Amino acid sequence: MPQKVGILVVGNEILDGIILESNSRWLTNRLKPLGFQFWERMIVRDDVEEIAKAIKRMVEDNCKLIITSGGLGPTHDDMTLKGIAHAFNLRMGVNREALEIVTRQYKELHNRGIIENENVTEARMKMAILPVGSTPLDNRVGGAPGVHLHVNDVEIISLPGVPSELEWITDNQLIPLLNQYVDGIYYEEIMNLPLRDESSLAPLIDEVMKRVPDVWVKSMVKPYGEMGIRLWISTRGYDRDQVVNKVKNAVTILRELINSSLPNG
Predict the structure, then answer these.
(1) Which of 43, 13, 31 has its CA nearest to residue 167?
(2) What does 32-85 look like in DSSP terms, one character per residue?
(3) Taking a C-beta distance cutoff of 8 angstroms, is the pair 147, 158 a contact?
(4) Are residues 38 and 135 in the same domain?
(5) Where residue 123 sits, what CATH number does that domain have?
(6) What 8-state DSSP symbol labels residue 264?
(7) 145-157 pLDDT tens trace
(8) Do 66 and 104 belong to one domain?
(9) Are residues 37 and 146 part of one domain?
(10) Residue 146 is inside which H or E element, if any?
(11) Residue 237 near residue 185 (C-beta atoms within 8 A)
């Protein structure tokens, strides 16, 4: 399993504050239960050199799985795949399978009355031009296929920036692809505590992790405006019942310690 995962978000509209970026958070929450460790996240402009530079940085940081979000569409500023090709000195070319996906999707969108015509225009053809050696990931929501590229022992996954498309491809194409890397079973539970002082929990968390080996407890103060502390209790293993029981046992012990040690517990 790749030990480090990087997420690269591409889009001027994000850096310019026009839209709020949420795809990376959704991806992290969706893929974290599979056991992937997210190491870094970067946001860059729609620029071939900047995209390539960010990809190279993640490779240098030993990220073996890099997921990009955005920049796969039909317009001139959709440059993610060109940036990836530039990073690895790859040629770009029309991918027949990707073209079939684009053609099918625009026909379907036309039949549903969403677009005026189904013609594969030059702009739409752009979404079928991939780095040579890539494999398209089907997209049943929009027009742009996702892209999977294996190069230099690194897996590069490129997803559209439209959340509904990114989520559909992740659930229906990416998760089955990544399952080959998943070793064992992951389970977590989340506790929300009406507390203010995160430091008061530290010795209790340490005690729980001593009593229940292999269980990880992570605390985080809720965002401003929300009172309380959120705890993630998780572990991995090969027997589902044992994995679930370990986490539930840790939760029980933690609640007992809180109730006996903290007046507000």
Answers:
(1) 31
(2) GGGT--EEEEEEE-S-HHHHHHHHHHHHHTT-SEEEEES--SSSTT--HHHHHH
(3) yes
(4) yes
(5) 3.40.980.10
(6) T
(7) 999 999 999 999 9
(8) yes
(9) yes
(10) strand 146-151
(11) yes
Q: How far apart (Å, rounded) are the C-alpha atoms in residues 56 and 14? A: 21
pTM for this prediction: 0.78
Q: And the tokens for 162?
A: 């439209």
Domain that holds residue 232: 185-261
**Are 9 and 74 contained in the same domain?**
yes
**CA torsion angle 40 44 50 51 (round to 10):** 70
Mean predicted lDDT score pLDDT of the chain: 90
Which of 163, 181, 199 finishes a domain? Answer: 181
The neighbouring-strand residues paired with 192 are 230
- 52-103: pLDDT as tens digits: 999 999 999 999 999 999 999 999 999 999 999 999 999 999 999 999 999 9
Identify whether residues 64 and 106 lie together within a single domain: yes
Assign residue 116 a region (left: φ > 0; alpha: ψ between -120 and 50; beta: otherwise). alpha
Give residue 240's Cα distance to chain centre. Answer: 24
SS3 state of residue 255? helix
Strand, helix or coil at 232? strand
Pairing type for strands 185-193 and 146-151 reads unpaired
Joined tokens for residue 126: 């752009």
State how far Cα 214 lies from the chain centre. Answer: 25
Asked whether residue 141 falls in the same domain as residue 31, the answer is yes
DSSP strand pairing (129-131 vs 65-69): unpaired
